[in-house]
Amino acid sequence: MPAPKNLFKQALKEGRAQIGLWQALANAYTVEISAGAGYDWLLLDAEHAPNDVPLLVSQLQAMKGTASHAIIRPPIGETWIIKQMLDIGAQTLLIPMVDSREMAETMVKAVRYPPHGVRGVGAALARASAFNRIPDYLPTANDEICLLLQVESRAGLEALDAIASTEGVDGVFIGPADLAADMGYLGGPGAPEVQAEVEKALAKIQAHGKAAGILIGDLSLAKRYLELGATFVAIGNDVTLLANATTKLLDDFKNAEAAKPPADAKVY
C-alpha cells in the first residue's frame, strides 16, 4: 500500500482551479467547520497564527475524511520544522519568505527522503505512515509531497525565474501583503504598482510550467487572478470572517428597531 494520493497536487498538474481559505484561529473546531463548507483546500497557518505541532495535528485530524485538502505553512523554511510537518501527515507545504534558488533547492531536499533529499527517516513513529501501517510509505512518499514556495519581496521577484524553474517545486505563491510593504506600500496590496508586479509574477510562474497561487480578500481581484491562470487561490481567512461577523451583528442589533406587537394582539 503506497502513501495516500495527493489529489491537490494532481489538480494543480491538471490546471484545475483550487479555491482555499486561510485558517489562523489555531482551532480544530473552526477548521472542522470550514472543511465542511466545500473549499478545495484549507491553509493551516503556523507563521502568523499561534499554532504549534500538537495543535496542527488536531486540525489535520479534524479535516480527515472531508473534501478539503490540508496545506500547512510552517513558521520558517527550515529543514527541522519541515520534517515535523511532514511526519504529522501534511502532504502539501507552503514555505514562506523564499527569495533565492538556493533556498528553493534547500526546501526541495527538505521534503524528500535520501538519496534525493535529507528528510529524516522516522516514518515508523509518524502519523504520516499511519504509524507504520502503510507498508510502502517510504518508497512512495516523495511523489505525493506538494511543495509550494511563497515569494513576497522584491528580492524574491528578482529571483523568481530561478525559483520557479527549480526542479521539485510544484507551485509558487505570491504574498501581496509583504510584497506591498517591501515595495513601500505597507497595508496597500491593492495599489496599482503592487498589482502590476503581482500580475507579471503570476505570468512568469506559469511560463515555467508551475502552478501559481495567491491569497486576496478582494473577491473581484481573486476572480481576476483566476482569469490570469492562477490555480490555487485563497479568498479569505477565518479570523477576518469572525471579526467582521461579530462586529456586524452588534451593529445590526444597535440599529434594529424593537419588534412591535400586532395591532390585534391581546395583552394580559
TrEMBL record:
Question: What GO CC terms are in its UniProt record?
Answer: cytoplasm
Q: Biological process GO terms, please?
A: phenylacetate catabolic process
Query: What GO molecular function annotation could you give as one example from this UniProt entry?
Result: metal ion binding
User: Which EC main class describes this enzyme?
Assistant: lyase
Q: Which cofactor does it need?
A: a divalent metal cation
Q: Can you give the residue ranges of the HpcH/HpaI aldolase/citrate lyase domain?
A: 18-245
Q: Keywords of this protein's UniProt record, alphabetized? A: Lyase, Metal-binding, Pyruvate
- The protein's Enzyme Commission number: 4.1.2.52
Task: Give the catalytic activity.
Answer: D-glyceraldehyde + pyruvate = 2-dehydro-3-deoxy-L-galactonate
Q: What domain of life?
A: Bacteria
Q: Which SUPFAM superfamilies match?
A: Phosphoenolpyruvate/pyruvate domain
Annotated InterPro entries? Aldolase/citrate-lyase_domain, HpaI, HpcH-HpaI_aldolase, Pyrv/PenolPyrv_kinase-like_dom, Pyrv_kinase-like_dom_sf
PANTHER family, per the entry: 2-KETO-3-DEOXY-L-RHAMNONATE ALDOLASE (PTHR30502), 5-KETO-4-DEOXY-D-GLUCARATE ALDOLASE (PTHR30502:SF4)
**Family as reported in the entry's similarity comment:** Belongs to the HpcH/HpaI aldolase family.
Name of the protein described by the UniProt record = 4-hydroxy-2-oxoheptanedioate aldolase
Provide the species name. Answer: Rhizobium lusitanum
Starting at the broadest rank, the lineage of the source organism is: Bacteria, Pseudomonadati, Pseudomonadota, Alphaproteobacteria, Hyphomicrobiales
